[in-house]
Amino acid sequence: MLTSDGKPARLYACHSKEETMQILLINAPLQSIVCDQGVGHQLPLGLLMIGGPLLERGHTVRLLDAACHHLSDAEIIRTVEAFATDVVMIAHVGSTSAHPCCLRVLQAIKALHPGIVTVYGGVHPTYHDRAILMQYPEVDMIVRGEGEQTTADLVDQLAQQGLEQGYAYDLSTIEGLSWRRRGEIVRNPARQPIEDLDRYHIAWELIQDWDSYQAFGLGRAAVVQFSRGCPHFCTYCGQWMFWKRWRHRNVKKFVDELAWLHDRYAIQFFWLADENPTTLKDIWSSVLEEIAQRNLCIGLCASIRAQDIVRDADILHVYKQAGFLYILMGVETVTDETMTKIRKESSVDDAYKAVRLLRQHNILSIVDYIFGLEYETPRTIWRGLRGLHRYDGDFLNALYLTPHAWTPMGQQLKDAPVYETDLWRWDYRHQILSIPTLSPTKLFFAVKIVECLYHLNPRRLCRLFTARDPRVRKLLRFSFWHITLTFWSEIYQFITSHRWKQHEAKQENQL
Ligand code: B12
Ligand code: SF4
Question: Residue 26 burial (CB < 10 Å; 0-12/13-18/19+)?
């Protein structure tokens, strides 16, 4: 039903108390080369995790994946209207880089429908809640940290108090929420980490088209999470702080869920969203054994520390039996000195051994390397390439130091000159800090040359044809092709945006 000005009636209707709400979860329309040309789009697990408790409490929930479907703001607004939305909740995995587009979408929604309550969550708003609420009236509330309980309590409160009260509602009892009380910003006390991670339903049913989420040419993929948190304290990372402490799900319930997803939705590949699933060897080996015993025939991929791979040398065959195809290792550097400086609590030797152990078990390794941990010069870049060749991981994931303000490294570098102020490029794939020793163009092409020489190394090219396991061979070829696409897309993006920047600078100078 439409009102006289053509808007759905529900959008403007005052809610009586105790009503259920219409909640639209929006995965923000961030366009990224990594997903479009590289690994493919993956489902927004964080939104499914907050959707579950909302559904359980009887609210009507819908997921709009604007990133995966490349939706324009106008298309998003059309869905907001057609769904007669009461509350919009927005986020994106690439939280900092998606921040500008989250704000843009919320602004567009508020401009047309000021009565819709807007809730923002995820890593970036968790740490910048006060600044965001002060600056952007289109954001009504920010959920800090884990969202399951906070969002459910919030929506229940809104339903009970009635939306017609506007900013007069009282949300002071909801832990983990930042909001405005008559214009004043209120930060409710933080919420304690969730004790029982199996307590909340994950809203898998909100996925309408599973075929949109695929990985490595192996069919449908799902992101799943066994544990939260990390017991390490790397200085450039904020994830150990975000989840506060390491916790894990019940092993059997977790594997039941994998099996159910495999049977119900034909999911072939699972990404583990865990920071550190291997924290306790006995727990981790029971997860692997449980999956292996069920003979699910699935593919698995996770981020695992090199040190833990070396520790688990005696159970790596169970990794393989469970379905591990890929392991991402955040090695970050090629010197022990830098490892100590960034509190990596690992060593160059661990990384070297881990790659070889994985290869013995036919598991592919992707090695992360961060440029900018020291002032890069042609010499440090050359040393990096040599060190990376020595590690000999199957693929290289070249990253740039990204000093998020909430990390120890971000604090340490808070006065360092920032080259890239546009937050959408704060995604680890763009240079952020100025480096006095190399211009941005030189650094960019030096990194591209490293990527190129690394992946075109004859030893690695040979493996594309000689890998024994046919699934691994397929994966190698798929990854190689998509790395090539990403490589050229990033060069194209750099050249076009660089020209644009120069053009803008020229115009400013002329004014
Ligand atoms: C798996 C993963 C990927 C996968 C799959 C992504 C996907 N679509 O799921 C791939 C490899 C594709 C990927 C890519 C990227 N990723 Co990633 N990724 C992860 C990882 C390991 C898990 C994500 C996840 O599902 N977590 C589990 C869920 C449950 O956690 P959550 O999303 O934080 O959600 C909880 C709360 O934040 C909150 N919440 C979340 N959303 C919302 C929304 C609302 C409204 C509310 C109220 C609450 C709320 O409640 C949730 C439940 O408690 C995380 C690290 C981590 N463990 O979180 C990095 C991480 C999220 N990725 C990160 C980044 C930067 C990226 C990239 C930008 C990297 C790149 N160079 O391109 C891209 C962007 C991808 C894109 N365009 O979609 C960073 C983000 C940091 C930041 N400040 O922005 C992280 C934190 C890694 C890190 N150590 O820094 N990623
Ligand atoms: S980088 Fe990895 S190991 Fe280090 S604190 Fe972050 S999640 Fe933990």
Answer: buried
Share of the chain above pLDDT 90, in %: 85
Residue with tokens 């004043």: 184
Q: How far apart are CA 258 and CA 269, in angstroms?
A: 10
Q: Whose CA is nearest to atom 26 of ligand 1?
A: 273
Query: Which residue's alpha carbon is at the smallest distance from atom 63 of ligand 1?
Result: 94
- Parallel/antiparallel/unpaired status of strands 60-65 and 87-91: unpaired
In this structure, what are the phi and psi dihedrals at residue 332, rounded to the nearest 5 degrees? 70, -30
Residue nearest to atom 15 of ligand 1 (CA): 94
Amino acid sitting at position 305: R
For residue 358, the CA-to-ligand 2 centroid distance in Å is: 20
Q: Establish whether residue 225 lines the binding site of ligand 1, counting it when its CB lies within 6 angstroms of any ligand atom.
A: yes
Tell me the CA end-to-end span of the chain in Å, nearest whole number: 51
Q: How many Å lie between the centroid of ligand 2 and the Cα of residue 241?
A: 10
φ, ψ at 300 (rounded to 5°)? -130, 150
Which residue's CA is the closest to the ligand 2 atom numbered 3? 232
Structure confidence by residue, pLDDT tens digits, 112-145 = 999 999 999 999 999 999 999 999 999 999 999 9
CB of 239 within 6 A of ligand 2: the answer is yes
DSSP assignment of 57-91 equals TT-EEEEEETTTTT--HHHHHHHHHHTT-SEEEEE
pLDDT by residue (tens digit) across 218-256? 899 999 999 999 999 999 999 999 999 999 999 999 999
